[in-house]
Design a protein that fits this description.
The structure is a homodimer.
Chain A lengths: L4 H15 L8 H6 L5 H13 L3 E4 L5 E4 L8 H9 L16 H19 L2 H8 L1
Antiparallel strand pairs in A: 1-2
Helix pairs in contact in A: 1-3, 1-4, 1-6
Chain A binds a DNA duplex through helix 3.
DNA sequence: ACATTATAGAGTCTTATAGTCTTTGATTAA
DNA sequence: TTAATCAAAGACTATAAGACTCTATAATGT
């Protein structure tokens, strides 16, 4: 069980966008270079972030991507969910009785991680990354 | 990112072993039936648990698997590590500076989950599953 | 010896990840 | 209005991991 590389790219891209406090949008070309990944691949990741409303995009010359208003409070969990999806890490598919205690414990532990990831915001990340 | 089915089987198998407080070992055949999984596949999972010292096995007629001494304090995390491995869920492979803050945050959140999984023991699970 | 059981290895099938390539559509600058 | 620049979307491919199966071997009890 591992986070996908896409999640790593997404997190770093969000940080890059947040750090470059430019009013102009930044092209995928530039963002891709900063992480040594292909622009077309990164664009798919960015599209997911756009669909979740964290990033806005403009086509055409001088276009690119920029963070949307309120970006400061975007959490790690928001970004991770945008890429990995929101479904639980553990699902007991076994058909045994109504309440699986194992499932319960696994979900509770997952919640602990998510609490922490919810607490960590983009603004906080920028602060410590300077 | 999902836990493997093998982890699910492992957790349920450990619970089954713990619940059947029999002094005699239990064959993989029996254990497999309880979860609707093939015996040969489950045996591979059990072998991992044996190698981690949580389960002991005896070959031959009337052989099978049983929990080792001190099983009560085996944690969810122990079982999960035995199947999924101990490596971190997130690894920033990017070559940018010495301390990646993203990596740090991700690891901290992971630790929260692991803390909880360490707290949850087999004995506790048996208690609530009765 | 023989039945029973775990262990180990190789092999298969499916799915997810991690991309690439190409086309289309929007926007701006000349 | 045309060309250049950019994002979005779809189809495609390659690799690896997950989820098994099958077969052979080794250990143990009757």
């Amino acid at each position: 069980m591992k986070y996908s590389k896409a999640t790593n790219y997404a997190l770093h891209t969000m940080l890059n966008l947040a750090m470059s406090n430019s009013s102009k949008p930044i092209g995928v070309q530039t963002l891709a270079e900063q992480q040594n990944v292909s622009p077309t691949y990164l664009s798919k990741i960015l599209t997911k972030l756009v669909k979740e409303g964290m990033v806005s995009s403009v086509s055409g010359a001088n276009g690119g991507y920029s963070l949307t208003k309120g970006w400061e409070s975007i959490s790690f969990l928001d970004i991770i969910f945008a890429i990995e999806g929101k479904s639980s890490l553990f699902e007991c598919g076994l058909d045994h009785g109504p309440h699986c205690q194992i499932q319960k414990v696994m979900l509770e532990s997952e919640e602990k991680m998510e609490e922490e990831l919810r607490r960590q915001t983009l603004a906080g990340l920028v602060q410590t990354s300077k």
